[in-house]
Amino acid sequence: MATNPTFQLFSASNDKSSSQGLGFFDSPEPPRPPPPPPVEVFSSEVSSSVAFSVDKVNIGQVTLLKGRVNTKEVFGLPNSDLVPGVYEGGLKLWEGSIDLVKALEKETQTGNVSFPGKRVLELGCGHGLPGIYACLKGADAVHFQDFNAEVLRCLTIPNLNANLSEKPPSVSVGDKEVRFFAGEWSEVHQLLPLVNDGETGTKGGYDIILMAETIYSISAQKSLYELIKTCLANPNGAVYMAAKKYYFGVGGGTRQFLSMVEKDGVLASTLVSEVTDGSSNVREVWKLSYK
């Protein structure tokens, strides 16, 4: 493990010197080890050997539960944000997940998005709070994806279970399809049940794709974007993406990602919200939809 340096994505967010020298476009990323093969993780595989506890998190008018597990206990790693290609930060609750749930709540209240009957995919889910929100708001199917199967077993599944156990009596989840998939973005489409199939037409795709803090790595952005286009229902599908404008030290950010989207010319982007609370650099939520 010593050859895989850890990145602290937000440790330099308030340090003005972090934008000097190696900036957000010229920081080389270390070589990544071969990714684990994609795999479906079943809810029955929830880990019983890792300590799991929950805290309440108030997100506007919404109260959800966030699980807590120890990175060292799950991966044998010190508490770190990520180890590229080994552990991609899924055990930490990132700010963008909170921003995304807040934005979805506002979009729901204004009628810009509606979850009942929809098929939802959360990419890079970690705690899965946006996907859990979609489930509680009536989505027919919610599929969760994370790079690490261990994150799904030790955190996502128990966190979903904890939130559903606290659901209001008016919320029924018994007939919902909830599934979990682990794997790299360039390969996980092989297992996802709702993808656009160029040879046989389409399996429908996902009506809504949710993702938070997924675009920090420039090297992974292209495969993420291709996965989005493979999975997004056409013509009415929508992507809600929460991220920072720049990720100092690792290269990615909304401006770099949206530039790629604009050059491709398939999807249009709309700014949903901007967060400038001083806790980090500027955070944003964007909506992507077909032109």
Automatic annotation (TrEMBL):
Q: What is its EC number?
A: 2.1.1.85
Report the superkingdom from the record.
Eukaryota
* Location(s) in or outside the cell: Cytoplasm; Nucleus
Give the residue ranges for region: Disordered: 1-42
Is Transferase among the key words of this record?
yes
Q: Which UniProt keywords apply?
A: Cytoplasm, Methyltransferase, Nucleus, S-adenosyl-L-methionine, Transferase
Principal location listed in the UniProt entry: cytoplasm
Give the similarity note.
Belongs to the methyltransferase superfamily. METTL18 family.
Q: Which GO terms describe its biological process?
A: methylation; regulation of translation
Gene Ontology annotations for the cellular component aspect, listed alphabetically = cytoplasm; nucleus
Concerning InterPro entries, the annotation shows: Methyltransf_16, SAM-dependent_MTases_sf
Give the molecular function GO annotations: protein methyltransferase activity; protein-L-histidine N-tele-methyltransferase activity
- Which EC class, in a word? transferase
Q: What is the designated name of this protein?
A: protein-histidine N-methyltransferase
Q: Where is the composition biased (Pro residues)?
A: 28-39
Q: Which PANTHER family match?
A: HEPATOCELLULAR CARCINOMA-ASSOCIATED ANTIGEN, HISTIDINE PROTEIN METHYLTRANSFERASE 1 HOMOLOG
**Extent of Polar residues compositional bias:** 1-21
What organism does the UniProt record list as the source?
Answer: Brassica campestris
